[in-house]
Known about the structure:
Elements: H1 2-14, E1 22-27, E2 30-39, H2 40-51, E3 54-56, E4 64-73, H3 74-82, E5 87-91, E6 97-102, H4 131-137, E7 141-142, H5 145-151, E8 155-156, H6 158-167, H7 171-187, H8 189-199, H9 204-215, H10 219-229, H11 233-249
Parallel strand pairs: 3-6
Antiparallel strand pairs: 1-2, 2-4, 5-6, 7-8
Amino acid sequence: MRQRALAAWIIAVAGIARADERVIQYAKDALTVHLTNVPVAEVLDEIAHQSGADIRGQVLADRAVTAQFDAVPLPEALHRVLGDQNFALVYGEGGKLRSVRLLGGTPGQTAAAAPSPVTPAVQPAPSSPGLANLVANHAPVPVSGRLAQTVGGPNATLQQLFEIGTRNEDSSLRSEAIRTMVSTLETDPALRAATIGELGTIDDGALSAILRGAAGEHAEEVAMQVLTQARASEIRVKASSVLQRLRAGS
């Protein structure tokens, strides 16, 4: 139950983890994207849909794109999306984009992720470890200043940060513990992915109740800290909703 509460607290603090983003906007031959783990081929398909252009050729690297930029001219934007792959843009009358030609693939192919090689036998991928499991087995994270003094060393376990962030009498220490937990979540892909998976199963009301149970009288403070510290609008909206429910419950 202790690990379950800690896992729930991570969910509440981080977004309350950042959900996968998918914003692709083509206008005036410029591209705006806010992407988290979106396949290259899907980005190109959306550009084609919005611009009316054809995508010719083949994506050479079967990879996902994580990028954020606003109104970047299409040539530069595609360099960021495609990486090392070369391409050519063809324009028609009035400067309208007619096609994007991906170079290096087989001529005439439409944009698609490069096919995976066929192997004699395919082993099923292992299932992702649960969030509580990842929390329980996560390596200690670096800490400094008064937080390091409180835990008695330069590293702290997530369990220690949980205790400080929800129960310590010093508000500045609680705040620092929350910031450290958020930073750990954002830089650990496995922990972040597991948190995102859990988020899909918990609505705002249940999340508010979980946070109240985990943080007690400091639950509203935790939600407020996330609301003021979060960078992404999706996190701020989620934190705001949870904070409102907590205040209503009070």
